[in-house]
Design brief:
Blueprint (H helix, E strand, L loop, with lengths): L5 H8 L4 H16 L16 H9 L4 H17 L1 H21 L51
């Protein structure tokens, strides 16, 4: 099983992806709070992940807390078969959040474009440099087609 992305955990804790992100974060909390799987009542000496989840929720920007939660989830999944199955299902749900939150649709159709086209997502301060128009050959005020030539 792949570890849960630290960036995804931090993003969900920080409230990205709107309602679906909130629901995904809530689902992770419910999964972490479940008792350890079948084992005759013996709780393994590993974190359930609840403390790490709470710490990350308190400071979503702390990458160390996100890493601690990712590690706790991986360790618990390694010793708790039921949790591993639940975490795998949760990761599928979280992958949809990531896909929906990062969706980009670019469409250029019809006509002729005479300039730059920027395609992608999340651009900050884009600038475009275009070449200066070619100089006219008739001097100042000349249009090159004979119109406007008033000097004789």
């Amino acid at each position: 099983m792949d570890p849960v992305s630290v960036a995804l955990l931090a993003a969900l804790a920080g409230g990205v992806a709107g309602e679906i992100g909130r629901q995904t974060w809530t689902a992770l909390g419910a999964l972490v709070r479940r008792p350890f799987g079948r084992g005759g009542g013996n709780t393994p000496p590993v974190s359930s992940g609840e403390a790490e989840l709470t710490r990350l929720a308190a400071d979503p920007g702390d990458q160390g807390r996100a890493q601690a939660l990712s590690t706790a989830l991986a360790v618990r999944a390694a010793v708790d078969e039921d949790f591993r199955a639940g975490l795998a299902a949760w990761q599928e749900q979280a992958a949809r959040v990531r896909a929906e939150n990062g969706a980009v649709t670019n469409l250029v159709s019809g006509g002729t474009l005479n300039g730059p086209v920027l395609m992608g997502r999340d651009f900050n301060n884009p600038t475009f440099t275009t070449p200066a128009p070619p100089p006219s050959s008739g001097g100042a005020g000349a249009t090159g087609d004979g119109a406007g030539d008033s000097t004789r």
